[in-house]
Amino acid sequence: MKNLKGKVAVVTGAAMGMGKDLSAKLMREGCRVALVDVNTTELARTEGELSRTGECRAYTCDVSDRKAVYSLAKKIAKDMGPADILVNNAGIVRAKELLDLDDEAIEKTIAINLTAQFWTCRAFLPAMVEKGEGHVVNVASAGGILAIPNLSAYCASKFGVVGFSDALRQEMKKRKLAIGVSYVCPNTVNTGMFEGSKMVTGTKMLSSDEVTTKIVKAIKNNTAMVAVPNISVKFLTPLTKLLLPIKAMDWLNATLGMDTCNDSWKGRSC
Asked: In whole angstroms, how far apart are CA 49 and each of 2, 7, 16?
């Protein structure tokens, strides 16, 4: 899928941050974009802004609501045509120790970050299967490769996204379908989700552009894993986990500040 011109792309969490930035990039590639978000106000603003440069439509939907997602897929297909690209970008975080997390926060984190991707894929994949081609992007996190304190629910959801994506990619290959599946594992991105958190030693805050530029390339080149930064997330972290004893790994994480980096987390208001 090197040429994206004329393709219909569905992007969840499109009202702000990486979703908005990625939607703009896909439109510049010639895509017609369905902007999906639960935040109606911000979504309308984004639609108004991006519609100046190409075709996009706003759809308010809680992607953790299975029935709402299935209805959404029918609505988008009717309005814009069957989806060629699905980007599962919607996500939330609550950075607290497990015993300080309330039940609702745990359930909501898993539902939005992980379970919702099952619903969207089940809703939008059949059209890709019928055409025999397409692409799915599942946004995970570096926290889906290496877990750290205060992010038990978040890391569990992102580890799940990685596993889900690996399984789904192999299913598409098994069926000999030209449907690519990519998962995205960035370090902390400056979208406001981790507002107040401290950067771990040796890392830097990423811009949305650094990540979304690589996502577009992954779609065009059918790249299975997008790691940002590539060397540290894709190679050094897994290799360190493999080689070091668990106690040594825990010591290293604490030494780099991973055990306290989210103690000051505030997050964003919306």
From this structure: 26, 20, 12
DSSP E strand stretches across 16-77: 32-37, 56-60
Per-residue burial over 90-106, b if 16 or more Cβ lie within 10 Å, else e, is: bbbbbbbeeeebeeeeb
Q: Which residues of 121-159 are buried (b: 16+ CB within 10 A; e: fewer)?
A: bebbbebbeeeeebbbbbbbbbbbbbebbbbbbbbbbbb
Residue ranges and CATH numbers for the domains of the chain are 8-255 (3.40.50.720)
What are the residue numbers of the active site?
154
Q: What is the mean pLDDT of the chain?
A: 94
The answer on pLDDT for 226 being more than 90 is yes
CA-nearest of 90, 108, 101, 86 to 9 is: 86
